Protein: Ca2+:H+ antiporter
Amino acid sequence: MSRSVIQGLPRWTLVVPVLAFLDLVLSWHRHLGTVLLILVCVGLGAAVFAAVHHAEVVAHKVGEPFGTLILALAVTVIEVALIVTLMASGGDKAASLARDTVFAAVMITCNGILGLALVVGSLRHRVQGFRVQASYSALTVMTALVTLSLVLPTFTTSAPGPRFSAAQLAFAGVTSLVLYGVFVFIQTIRHRDYFLPVSPDGDVDEDEDHHAAAPSTATALLSLALLFVCLISVVGLAKTVSPNLEHAVQSAGLPLSVVGVVIAMLVLLPETIAAVRAALRNRLQTSVNLALGSALASIGLTIPAIAIASIWLSGPLVLGLGGKEMVLFALTVVTGMLTLSTGRATLLQGAVHLSVFSAFIFLAISP
Structure:
């Protein structure tokens, strides 16, 4: 590796991914004592910050909206692999894992990440602008995907319980993949300008980081490779910590679904930090792209993957949401429509989204 490539990145961003991956290898399928648990938690946090840095390097090189798309896709692909692995080894206990994970991702991204970005951005810049065309397009696709994949199974009758039949699951998987593919085409090719950051005067800001020189191609490729190493470490270390979380949750008398929520929040930490930092730089459109794009990637890739995996998975697959979850989803859609309808965001919208997210967390703990 050339010296110029290494000099293009801070030293800690080169060391942390390697150490985090070694941490994952040493702790994989092992009982975590106090010392090893601390090391895993430290490695998890360090990997998150390194992932955010490398994602921003790649985003600076390729520009928007490709940068946010890469981060969302990278996290989601690894998350899907984790879900399928857990379902394959979990049996009947993992029947609702895909549903709970996808729904948690939707609530975290559309209320938690978006709300936090709106709050911190408005506290610094008072009012921030974004593109209605992009935000509404993403919200429309997200609403259709969640309804077709997670709401309809509660009301279909071909299979017992809130489940799809094999044909219905195949249809949902194909539809999800097609809708997500069309959205990515619109985002990156057909109407790319809709998803570009908005400058303070309201014009398209294609050069988001015009004040800094773009990294070299070699540096960007190295950051892309290290990004995947970091994300694999984040998801793997989160899975490693999950038994300890499960034991703590059971000891506290809380529902096991809380474990899924905590794991989803850990996995989505890189996108959360990236979205908040973009909002602080008055690039709210980037934050919106990250939040809604992550929700779309989670649904659009998870459902097809689960549909394919169901061919060899022997356990049941529960996809239908309960009444409480459907109310929260409806509230999220309505709130999102009102927030994204003006192209301007203030502290109030952020507070509303964080309130909905708080309700989701509270009801997960106290159903």
